[in-house]
Each structure stands twice: as structure tokens, then as C-alpha cells.
Amino acid sequence: MSRRFVFVGVTTGASAINAIFPRWRDALGLPGDAEIIGLDLPPGAPAEDYRRAVAWIRDDPEVLGALVTTHKLDLLRAARDVFDELDPLAELLEEVSCIAVRDGRVLGWARDPVTAALALDDLDAPVADVLCMGAGGAAAAISLVLFERGTRRLIVTDRDPDRLAHARALHAQVPHPDTGVEYVLVGDGEPHDRLLAGLPAGALVINATGLGKDRPGSPLGDAAPWPAGAVAWELNYRGELDFLRQARAAGARTEDGWRYFIFGWTAVIELVFQRPIGAQDFERLAEAAAFARPGGTT
User: Fold this and answer.
1) If residue 34 lies in a helix (H) or strand (E), which one and from where to where?
2) Tens-digit pLDDT profile for residues 41-98
3) How does pLDDT run across 157-183, given as a tens digit for each residue?
4) Which residues pair with 100 in a beta bridge?
5) How far apart are CA 133 and CA 204, in angstroms?
6) What is the DSSP string of 171-235?
7) Model-level pTM greater than 0.70?
8) CA 294 – CA 298 distance, rounded (Å)
């Protein structure tokens, strides 16, 4: 009997994690028969598909648990009654990114805030003024961490008014007396350029839109006026990454999403396999995964 770690996504076969996981398994001393199994579902799949997926994770004796990417909100919405226990962040964010089966009980966690906190520590950038382009699940998790760290001004944008409304409703449940939040409905290009122009020196600018990865382009125009000393954080690590190209051309400090990707996976692995992963472990795992990084390790 092998021990299966399920990856619930959209195109799981294309992920670098398939090549990385065997090296991490050995580095962490996980069971030698542990393997990663992809489960592809289209975005916005029927509720019954999500219910079947969680039921399979629960009932297959070889499955230890799962990491969930794109489907975090929809999966919990469709299969909430299948879970025996959710952590407080899963309840707050109404999403599940980590599933573990223990003694027949299905447990769920939202690990994105943990990932965001680790990644922001690693980034070591000022967070007084932040422009977060995109209001999806990753952006919501990052916003909670920014509240904890006393961000003065947070601008959250999205093309979808429902996502902005969801972000506003989430923020209404979380005290953030030190942070003024602005919610901006945007189209392409120019609105983001104007917001960027209004930022002070040293601002943190986050691309959480997906543009430059699954869809071509950037939320900014090439002539967007970057503030002095800005830090550009791209949550993606593969694709054209036009946002990072623009930021580098403007002299901004840049960071892609590679280590964010590693933080996300390790935050789930340590719960599914009940194997704590400390800072030294993390650096060993980052080194072990470097071969799979698109474009090399720079």
C-alpha cells in the first residue's frame, strides 16, 4: 500500500511539484512509498465533483490528505458537511487549502495566511503602503497578515466587483485599526498606473492578478510611473512575468513567487505528514527544488 498525497488543481501534471516531491520526501524522511497524485478539475466545477473528490480523499485508505489550489473556495462551499473539523482561518476565509484524514476524520485548514506571513518575512520589505492588484484568495490572506503588521494604507483592486465585495466583507470581520483600506474596481492598464503614481517612496506593489502567468500581460502599462525605492512582488514564478520586467526596467526591487510557492507546499506537507518543517529544513528543501525553477535559480 502506497501513501498518497493528493494535489487538487486544474493542470496538476504541469506543476514543478511532481518532480520536486520525491526529493523532498527523501530530504524530510517521509515514508518511502509516499507519492503525489494529481486530481484535475476545471475552475468552477459542479458541486458534486467537489463532493466526490473529498469523499474519495476520506475513503481511500491510501490517501493521507491533499493540497488544494484553485478550488479552495468552491470545494469547501460544496463539501462543507463532509469535513469533521475546520481551523479558524478556514472558517474565516471560507476556504480550504489543506485536507488531512486522521482516524477517519476529515480535517481542513486554510494555510494561505501562514504562507503569506512566511513569505513576507522572507521578502523583508516595508509594508507601510501597499498596492495589491487582485483580490482573490492569496490577496485576502496577505491582507490579514498586513493588518497584523500595522500597514498604514492598503489599496486592493480587482476587475470583479464580487471579489472586491468579498474582500470588504472579510475585512469587516477582522479588526484593523491601523490600516486604511481602499477598494478599487479597475479595468486594464491606466487605472493601475494612476494608483501606482500616487504611492509614496518605498511602497510594496503586489501582482496577485495572474496576469503574466495564465494570461498574457501585466496589470500595469510599460510607462507606469514607479515610486522611488518600490518593491515589486510577483506571486507567480512561471510565465512571461511582464510585471517583473516592468519593475526591473523602472529600477524597483523585485521578487518572484518561487519561494512563496515553496512556502505554500511545505505549509501543507507538514500538516498532512505531521512532520514539522523548520527554517533549516526549508532552506534544504529550497535547495533541493532549485533544479525545477523555471529560468534557473536567479
Assistant:
1) strand 34-40
2) 998 899 999 999 999 999 999 999 999 988 998 999 999 999 999 999 999 999 999 9
3) 999 898 899 999 999 999 999 999 999
4) 65, 107
5) 11
6) HHTS--TT-EEEEEE--SSHHHHHHHHTPPTT-EEEE-S-BTTTBSS-SS-TT--PPTT-EEEES
7) yes
8) 10
Work out whether the CA dihedral 178, 95, 218, 293 comes out positive or negative: positive
CATH classification of 3-110+259-292, choosing from 1.10.260.40, 3.90.1150.10, 3.40.50.10860, 3.90.650.10? 3.40.50.10860
Which residue from 108, 105, 113 is spatially nearest to 140, judged by alpha carbons?
113
Contact predicate 248/222, CB 8 Å: no
Residue whose cell numbers read 516595508: 126
Could you tell me the end-to-end alpha-carbon distance of the chain, in angstroms, rounded to an integer? 40
Domain ranges of the chain: 3-110+259-292, 113-256
Q: Looking at the predicted structure, is the pLDDT value of residue 221 above 90? A: yes
* Distances, alpha carbon 298 to alpha carbons 95, 118, 250, 291, 293, in Å: 33, 20, 19, 11, 9
Residue whose C-alpha is closest to residue 207's, from 130, 112, 124, 122? 130
Q: How many other β-carbons are positioned within 10 Å of the β-carbon of residue 21?
A: 20
Question: For domain 113-256, is the CATH number 3.40.50.720?
Answer: yes
Determine what percent of the chain falls in helix, strand and coil, rounding each to the nearest 5: 40, 20, 35
What are the DSSP calls for 96-125, one per residue? -SEEEEETTEEEEE--HHHHHHHHHHHHT-
